[in-house]
Amino acid sequence: MPPTSLAPQQQLHGLYRDHHGWLQAWLRKRLGDRERAADIAHDTFLRLLVSGRLPGHDEGRSYLVQLARNLVIDQWRRQRIEQAYLASIAHLDEPQTPSLETRAMILQTLQQIDQMLDSMPAKVRSAFLLSRFEGLGYADIAERLGVTVSSVQKYMIRAIQACYQVLYSE
């Protein structure tokens, strides 16, 4: 029976059986950390399970490598955000330091914001950041980006839609 006619669970099981050890070794070689490699290999297959999108017959390893790379990049981004946040509160006195629960909520929010910004096209992201963090008006943003005010309005609509999506998707 060709692999494409197997039930998705059987395909996933076969993919796991045939490639899990290899993927974990590949990750361990690149990351230099056995536990992180095991976690990311596990998360790679979990992502496959959740998404329901399985690679074609001859695409198993390349598909798994791409998923694993994306997970490593996501992990590095989360670590950078966490380190930056912790550095920003390191100077606070003990009474002003947020509780561990508050820190976790803030980090989760920062990661959602990062994902939202990363999902935006470059000009949309730039327009949003110029508006919200530099306080520029649409005409100034248009001049800075070399586009029309109408384009800036469209960019801002897309950016605000992305914000709402993050806020109300959970």
UniProtKB/TrEMBL annotation:
BP GO annotations: DNA-templated transcription initiation
Top-rank taxon, per record: Bacteria
Listed PANTHER family: RNA POLYMERASE ECF-TYPE SIGMA FACTO, RNA POLYMERASE SIGMA FACTOR FECI-RELATED
Pfam families tied to this protein: Sigma70_r2, Sigma70_r4_2
A Gene Ontology molecular function term of the record: DNA binding
InterPro entries to which the protein is assigned, alphabetical: RNA_pol_sigma-70-like (IPR039425), RNA_pol_sigma-70_dom (IPR014284), RNA_pol_sigma70_r2 (IPR007627), RNA_pol_sigma70_r4_t2 (IPR013249), RNA_pol_sigma_r2 (IPR013325), RNA_pol_sigma_r3/r4-like (IPR013324), WH-like_DNA-bd_sf (IPR036388)
Protein name: Putative RNA polymerase sigma factor
Similarity comment: family membership: Belongs to the sigma-70 factor family. ECF subfamily.
CDD domains per the UniProt record, alphabetical: Sigma70_r4 (cd06171)
Signal peptide range: none
Domain RNA polymerase sigma-70 region: 15-80
Matching NCBIfam families: sigma70-ECF
Domain RNA polymerase sigma factor 70 region 4 type as annotated: residue spans: 111-163
Swiss-Prot/TrEMBL keywords: Sigma factor, Transcription, Transcription regulation
